[in-house]
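$ fold --in a.seq
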Amino acid sequence: QLQLVESGGGLVQPGGSLRLSCAASGSSLGYYTVAWFRQAPGKEREGVSCITASGGNINYADSVKARFTISRDNAKNMVYLQLNTLKPDDTAVYYCAADPMLFCDGSYHYSPSDFGSWGQGTQVTVSS
């Protein structure tokens, strides 16, 4: 059974950067599409970015395009999310999620119910 663990969150000033990591165990992450979601207090969980198993297709939510970059290293069973030019509105718990059947491309509409495996989340706080 696939298990996911996120890391790399923290407190950063507006305009700063963070790199989140999602480490997988129990199965090869190379068989899974992986997505990053985030959830701010009092708000619904929203999709941020996703990447297909091969890395050939990537999707970003409009709110993070040109600021966030998703990548993966299947040999290391890792997926990353580089967060640049952070804004206070980016403050949230960030989760990675994976599913072996999902295909995400430029037209994908994020739905948490599409993903069967989830990590516990890592807090990102953007504040001066």
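$ fold --in b.seq
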Amino acid sequence: QVQLVESGGGLVQAGGSLRLSCAGSGFRFGRNAMAWYRQAPGNQRELIARIFSDGTPYYADNVKGRFTISRDNAKNTVYLQMNSLKPEDTAVYYCNFVDIIHYWGQGTQVTVSS
């Protein structure tokens, strides 16, 4: 049974930092590209970062230079280090991978106060 469990969300002031974690199980973690999406109220879910199986990262323009995605295949965990947070980063953040279909975690709330 595939599981993705996110953690690390919370309330932070603008300019602060948070690190999100996503622990995967039930699939071959190291062979899959892993991604982070987010969804703010009234908005569509958007891709913000992806890390391929070889460690190559991809970032959306609105987080490039502030967020860093990384993975530890030995721990079946993907991370999202978020620095210089802005109020517009407020959203529910989801871990994701695709293997024919999309798999999602339950999400973790990130709230950035101004």
